[in-house]
Amino acid sequence: MTTAAPRPDRERPERAVPQPNAVVGVGLIVLGADGRVLLGRAHDGRWELPGGKVDPGEDFERAAARELAEETALRVEPEDIEVLAVQIEAGSAVTRLTAAAVTRSAEGTPTVTEPHKIARWEWFAPAEIPSALYAPSAAVLRTWRPGLPQLPEVPSYDYPLGPAGTP
Question: Does the predicted model carry a pTM greater than 0.70?
Answer without folding.
Answer: yes
